[in-house]
## 1
Amino acid sequence: EMTSSLVGSEMCIRDSITDSGIPAQTDPKLCIVMIGTNNTGYFKGGEAPEKTAMGILGAVEHLLVRFPDTHVLLLGIFPRGTGPQDKLRQHNDRINAILAQCKLPRTTYANINRRFLDSSGKLLPGISRDNLHFTEKGYAIWADAVLPYIKKYCK
C-alpha cells in the first residue's frame, strides 16, 4: 500500500481519513496538508524520498475520495535543522521536489518554505525552539502564507 511508509502523525492522518464507517460531519471546501517530516526524522533520512512522497500523495488521494467536493492544498514539507546544509532538510527538499510534480485533481501544491528562512537559509529567529516545531511566531507566518488559498477556495 502506498501509504504504508507513513509514521507518527502522518499515519494517524491517513487512518482518520480512511473509511471508518463514521460519516463525515462536514464537507470541507479546503483541506490543508503538510505531512512527511516525521518520516524524515524517524528514518533519519534513510527512507527513499520517493517512498515518503508516495505516502503523502496516497494520503491526499484518500482525502480526495472521502471528500469529493474538497480542494486540497498540499504544502511542501517545512524546513528543519540549523541551515541549508542540514541533511534532514536536504532530504525534505528532495521529497518536496517530487511533490511539486503532483498532478492530482483538485490539488494545489505550494512550497512556502522561504517565508520561514532568512537570506542565508536559516530559520528566522524566534519561529522554532528546536529547529523543527514552530512557535506562535512560526504558526503566524504559516497562517499568513495560506490565507490567500483559504480566501480563494472557501468562498
## 2
Amino acid sequence: KLAFTFAVLFAAVCFGQTKEELKAKEATPPSDRMDAAFTTVEEMPLIADCTAEDKTAANACTQQKIAEHIAKEVKYPVTAKEAGIQGTVYVNFIVKSDGSIADVNLIRVIKDAPELDAEAVRAVKTLDNFNWIPGTQKGKSVSVTYTLPVRFQLK
C-alpha cells in the first residue's frame, strides 16, 4: 500500500533563522521591486472559494484546499517507490499581488531523490489553477511567500 501524508505550513515559515532575524525581517517591508515578497502580512492570500468574514475560518479553508489538492496531484515516482525512498521536500513559492503563483523553488530536498523533488515542485506549480485573492498589507495587494512541506511516505 502507498500512502501520502502532507503537511501544510502557512505562517511565513523561514527555516534556519532565529526569532530575532524573523522579527527584523518582518519589521522591514520589502523594497519596491516587483519581485519582492512579504513573509507575513495583515491579510494572508486566500483561495477565492474560502472567503468568509471569519478570517481564521477562511485561512483554515485555504490550507485544507491546498492540502487536498496536493494530495490528489502528487504521484509517487515509481523509481523512488521501488527504492523505498521516503522523506519531506520543502517547496517555497510566492502568491503574487495579482493572485498568480510564481518563483516555485526547492528549500530542502530528499538526498538522492531528485524525482521526488521534481514531483513536489510540479505539484506545487499546479496551485496556480486556483483563483487566488492576494494578501494585503496596509490596504494594498502584496506578494506573499509561503513554504510548503510535501511528505512522501510509503506504507
